[in-house]
From TrEMBL:
<dbReference type="InterPro" id="IPR001189">
    <property type="entry name" value="Mn/Fe_SOD"/>
</dbReference>
<feature type="binding site">
    <location>
        <position position="169"/>
    </location>
    <ligand>
        <name>Mn(2+)</name>
    </ligand>
</feature>
<dbReference type="GO" id="GO:0004784">
    <property type="term" value="F:superoxide dismutase activity"/>
</dbReference>
<dbReference type="Pfam" id="PF00081">
    <property type="entry name" value="Sod_Fe_N"/>
</dbReference>
<dbReference type="GO" id="GO:0005737">
    <property type="term" value="C:cytoplasm"/>
</dbReference>
<dbReference type="InterPro" id="IPR019833">
    <property type="entry name" value="Mn/Fe_SOD_BS"/>
</dbReference>
<dbReference type="GO" id="GO:0046872">
    <property type="term" value="F:metal ion binding"/>
</dbReference>
<comment type="similarity">
    <text>Belongs to the iron/manganese superoxide dismutase family.</text>
</comment>
<dbReference type="InterPro" id="IPR036314">
    <property type="entry name" value="SOD_C_sf"/>
</dbReference>
<keyword id="KW-0479">Metal-binding</keyword>
<feature type="binding site">
    <location>
        <position position="84"/>
    </location>
    <ligand>
        <name>Mn(2+)</name>
    </ligand>
</feature>
<dbReference type="InterPro" id="IPR019832">
    <property type="entry name" value="Mn/Fe_SOD_C"/>
</dbReference>
<dbReference type="InterPro" id="IPR036324">
    <property type="entry name" value="Mn/Fe_SOD_N_sf"/>
</dbReference>
<dbReference type="Pfam" id="PF02777">
    <property type="entry name" value="Sod_Fe_C"/>
</dbReference>
<feature type="domain" description="Manganese/iron superoxide dismutase N-terminal">
    <location>
        <begin position="3"/>
        <end position="91"/>
    </location>
</feature>
<protein>
    <recommendedName>
        <fullName>Superoxide dismutase</fullName>
        <ecNumber>1.15.1.1</ecNumber>
    </recommendedName>
</protein>
<keyword id="KW-0560">Oxidoreductase</keyword>
Length: 193
């Protein structure tokens, strides 16, 4: 069983003007498709891994019975597969605020603005390619951080809630080197908060 490129719940131009249609199209149909294909190609060698729940593959990444080069391949390409899936699902053209989550965010970070500032800082200060994350840690506490490349919070024992892609391919066409502007505009298309 192969993992499929997830269909988006909205059109490529639905997040305009904050994320442009061309970036969405290339990001989804080329980048995400590429991760999907490479992930599946590795899994062809490991039917037991291919039949696992997607999240479990990353929770158990270090214990998978695979060659080391393939473990790294799963980390990178499988990470690219699951991280983008979370990314598309957390965005949308209309807000669908999760009140319970929002209350918990205010409780944990002091205010919504303080949370946004901390998250934006994590996204802005990630050196090179990576993602900013809101997760639940092993004690069910909300936490914000960034991880390099396609690393998954599941591999740290954490559960992702939403993420922000700060690889250049996520924003370069529209924003070039202006990552802070991309981050600021992204809050408009994050559904949950
Ligand atoms: Mn990406």
């Amino acid at each position: 069983m192969a993992f499929e490129l997830p269909k988006l719940a909205y059109e490529y131009d639905a997040l305009e003007p904050f994320i442009d249609a061309r970036t969405m199209e290339v990001h989804h149909s080329k980048h995400h498709q590429g991760y999907t294909d490479k992930f599946n190609a590795i899994l062809e060698k490991y039917p037991e891994v291919a039949s696992m729940q997607l999240e479990d593959i990353f929770k158990k990444l270090n214990d998978l019975d695979v060659e080391e080069a393939d473990r790294q391949g799963i980390r990178n390409n499988g990470g690219g597969y699951i991280n983008h899936k979370i990314f598309w699902e957390s965005m949308g053209p209309t807000k669908n605020v999760d009140e319970k989550l929002q209350n918990e965010i205010v409780e944990t970070f002091g205010s919504l603005d303080a949370f946004k500032e901390e998250f934006s800082k994590a996204a802005g200060s990630q050196f090179g390619s990576g993602w900013a994350w809101l997760v639940r840690d092993e004690n069910n506490k909300l936490k914000v951080y960034s991880l390099a490349n396609q690393d998954s919070p599941y591999s740290l024992g954490h559960t992702p809630i939403f993420n922000l892609d700060v690889w250049e391919h996520a924003y370069y066409l529209k924003y070039q080197n202006r990552r802070p502007e991309y981050i600021e505009n992204w809050w408009n298309v994050l559904k949950l908060v």
